[in-house]
Amino acid sequence: MRILGIESSCDETAIAIVEAREEEPRGLVVIKNLVASQAALHAKYGGVVPEVAAREHVDVIFPLLLEAGIARDGSDIDAIAVTAGPGLVPALRVGVELGKTLAWAWGKPLVATNHLEGHLYSVLLDEEGEKAMSFPALALLVSGGHTELILMKDHGVYERIGATRDDAAGEAFDKVAKLLGLGYPGGPAISKAAEQGDPIAIHFPRPMLESGDFDFSFSGLKTAVAVYLGGREVEKVEDVCASFQAAVVDTLVTKTMRAIAQYQPRSVILAGGVAANKALREALAAGCLPAGRQAGSPAYGGVKFYCPSLKYTGDNAAMIAAAGYFRALRGDFVDPLALEADPNMKLI
Ligand code: KG4
Ligand code: ZN
To answer: Does the reported pTM lie above 0.90?
Structure first.
């Protein structure tokens, strides 16, 4: 089955073609993965402006579709998967209307993909990722809009065991970068600066570490950085970045390890834009090593760890096609004349 993926929920316009091979060797093969980022356009506003994003999506989505090289009558495509939410309504609508139009004109089945489900399925796009969905799987989903611990019991059967009560992890990176004048998006800038800094130079709080649940909170940490910066002339921005990043990574990893101990998953998945963070990838990978080979407590060892390669951590349409494929297998299609963008679309 060949799936056309369409994504326009935020500031990336993306078109992809993913082939699900039914015969051996089974798995998902990415035929095309086209992403046009608007990050530079929104940088001057310090964040994504929905109407500006929508106009840009309109400008670039057709050239991307043509670049994908699909037959004019869609005959080399079996299904279309489009992100229907969550996200920014004006932005989402561009992709949704394109998906609806193509599905109707070509007579192809249409799948409404949840953007968060797309991130979860991004691990399947790498060669080694095929076994990531060994259920139950525990996923730490960290992006600009979400920070959640999700127990995946089967395809489409999820339980949220924890989430942020305020800012998402990526949002914290973006806000702290703004405080430091490092521009938007903040994650890449902070992690780059952090490489030259000392993670124990400043002690920032690890919020909600002892809360006894799997929830997170990052707005207090951002305030702690603001208070620190307000009181002094900062000598080394790199130290602030490294120390802030260490606080975020510590919090995320500690809670994920506790969730592993409690839920005993067969695999652990790290996904979403913040999964590009090297310190986070390394710390969680180390925590999942077999007992005896890790720095932390051996009680947590032995679970298989999956994280998408860097080209699939940020927003893309290949992950939307991947998640869409599993919905298509269940016959979970939508009416191309009725589908509407849903900014608050729920995963669970
Ligand atoms: O998944 P994504 O591309 O878009 C959303 O669905 O939100 O995630 C974007 C977020 C931004 O907040 C960005 O700052 C963050 O991911 N990010 C990072 C890194 N690269 C991107 N955060 C920390 N370290 C990074 N290397
Ligand atoms: Zn995303």
So the answer is: yes
